């Protein structure tokens, strides 16, 4: 039987390496080292590196176990300064991380591919792949980006997309199945939907009040199924046959230990379909920022 941990990937954006303050009384680098050691012992295969400063990337590189056991994904910078700059920054990131080759380089925003520099960016990524700087290239999308249209036009190796117990849009409309059917690796992100499932309804921000009753109902169904939100969220995502990788973000070693324990448990027997919500503000992080 294949371990569910073989699909679990770790995102580093929440490690706190861009902070100078202590995290739970510990230096961010020490916490990151413990997180990565736990991930390595659990044989989590993927580490997604995104959203860090150069200093934080260097700190992450110092914290990585050696030899590095992870398939490392990095993201491009914005393409408006030209493809030479994009490649130089990708090479600099790999140097700071202390790895010679990325498993994947991802365009972090599909809109970048449709701007005036989009084709130059994509052509350079293909050249970087041909040169052996990365094994795969891909793109990160939102549900509103027409992910299938993006994939058909650019033919990426990987599509990173949001999906969760609450946000099932790309599963319901068949997008993720179609992407997998095209031979692309589907990496799920935002499986905790910014922690929305863990937030008591009475503490939901004002702009999410419209979705509070549906979230409350999902929590009730999870409790009635003798499960908890963490186990349910992971069980749902890891059981998706469309997904090659399920990315999680944590802020501490304790959080990662809890994730690994929950992911290692049999998925709860729940009616997943009953837990989906359709509130556009709750489901779109960009709408959260604008609220």
TrEMBL record:
List the residue ranges forming a coiled coil, or say none.
none
Q: Which InterPro entries match?
A: AKR2_Oxidoreductase, NAD(P)_OxRdtase_dom_sf, NADP_OxRdtase_dom
Q: What is this protein called?
A: Aryl-alcohol dehydrogenase-like predicted oxidoreductase
Highest taxon in the source lineage: Bacteria
Q: What is the organism of origin for this protein?
A: Phenylobacterium haematophilum
The chain positions of domain NADP-dependent oxidoreductase read 7-274
């Amino acid at each position: 039987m294949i371990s569910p941990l073989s699909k679990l990937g770790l995102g580093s954006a929440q490690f706190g390496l861009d902070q100078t303050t202590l995290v739970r009384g510990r230096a961010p680098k020490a916490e990151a080292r413990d997180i990565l050691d736990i991930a390595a012992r659990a044989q989590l295969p993927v580490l997604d590196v995104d959203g860090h400063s150069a200093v934080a990337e260097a700190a992450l590189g110092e914290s990585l176990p050696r030899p590095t056991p992870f398939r490392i994904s990095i993201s491009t910078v914005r393409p408006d300064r030209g493809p030479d700059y994009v490649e130089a920054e990708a090479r600099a990131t790999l140097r700071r991380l202390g790895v010679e080759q990325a498993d994947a380089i991802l365009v972090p925003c599909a809109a970048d591919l449709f701007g005036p520099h989009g084709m130059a960016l994509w052509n350079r990524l293909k050249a970087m792949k041909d040169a052996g700087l990365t094994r795969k290239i891909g793109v990160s999308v939102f549900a509103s980006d027409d992910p299938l249209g993006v994939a058909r036009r650019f033919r990426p190796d990987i599509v990173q997309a949001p999906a969760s117990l609450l946000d099932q849009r790309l599963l319901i409309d068949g997008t993720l199945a179609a992407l997998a059917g095209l031979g692309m690796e589907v990496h799920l992100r935002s499986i905790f939907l910014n922690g929305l499932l863990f937030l008591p309804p009475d503490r939901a921000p004002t702009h999410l009040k419209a979705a509070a009753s549906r979230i409350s109902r999902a929590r009730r169904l999870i409790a009635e199924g003798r499960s908890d939100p963490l186990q349910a969220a992971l069980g749902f995502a890891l059981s998706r046959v469309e997904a090659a990788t399920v990315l999680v973000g944590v802020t501490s070693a304790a959080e990662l230990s809890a994730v690994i324990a929950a992911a290692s448990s049999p998925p709860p027997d729940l009616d997943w379909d009953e837990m989906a919500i359709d509130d556009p503000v709750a489901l779109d992080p960009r709408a959260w920022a604008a609220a």
